[in-house]
Specification:
- The chain is of the alpha/beta class and 246 residues long.
- The protein is 46% helix and 12% strand.
- The strands form two sheets. It has a four-stranded parallel β-sheet with strand order 2-1-3-4, with helices on both faces. The chain has a four-stranded parallel β-sheet with strand order 6-5-7-8.
- Strand 7, helix 12 and strand 8 form a beta-alpha-beta unit.
- Helix 11 packs across helix 12.
- The protein is globular and about 55 Å long.
Amino acid sequence: MKIGLFIPCYVDQFYPKVGIATYELLQKLGCDVHFPMGQTCCGQPMANSGYQYLTKGCDANFIANFTGFDYIVCPSGSCVLHVKEHLHDEKQEEAATEMRKKVFELIEFITDILKVDSIDGNFPYRVGMHVSCHGQRGLKLSQMTELNAPFFSKPEQLLHSIKGLDLVSLSRKDECCGFGGTFCVTEEAVSVKMGQDRIKDHENHHVDYITGGDMSCLMHLEGILKRQKSPIKTIHIAEILNSLGN
C-alpha cells in the first residue's frame, strides 16, 4: 500500500516532530510511506477567508505532488476536510475528483482503512482528549454530544489501548477551543476566551497532557497554557500512538 504523506504547512514549520511521528507510525503499521517534497499549503487559510479563487495554484500543486498514491494521509482533520470538499482543477477535474476520495485523516485511515482497533504503546500520563470541530463534525471521527445517538470515538478507541494512559472523561467533550483558523486573528478576544474555557475543563480533571488530532487547535491551546504558566502540555495523538515499544 503506497501512501503519500500530506503534512500541513504549519506542522512542517513549527511541529516537525508530529510529521515524523506520523511517518514512523504508518511505517510500523506496514505502510509504504512517501513524502512528496514539493507539497505546500493546501489553500485552506485563503478559502476560509473568502478567497477560494486564489487557491488554484495550491490545488494544481497538490494534484501534481500526490498523483500515483493509493492513499493520501494527513495528521490534520481540518486540512483533510478542506481537500475532500474543495480540491478542484479545471484542467484536471477528473484527477481532482479521484484524489478527494483518497485523502484521509490519520486516525480515520488507521481505523477505517487499515482496520486497526488497538495499538501497542506506552504513555503513563493523565490525558485529556480535545475533539476538533472539523474532525468530529466534518469527518465524523466521533459522535456529537447534542445528538441522541450511541457514543463512539475513533481517537479514544486507539488511546484506550495505550498502556499506562489514563484518559479522562471531560465535562464538555466536544466544545470548540476557539482557534478557527483566521477566526483567532479576526476575533482574537473571543478566541482566547473560548480557549481558556476549554483549558479550564482539562485543568479541573488534573490532566498532564492535552492531546488531539489537529495541531492547529493544540497550538492555540499551547499558547494560552504558556501565558498562564500552566504545567499542562500539549501533544499530538500521533506522538502518543508512536510510543510503540517504549
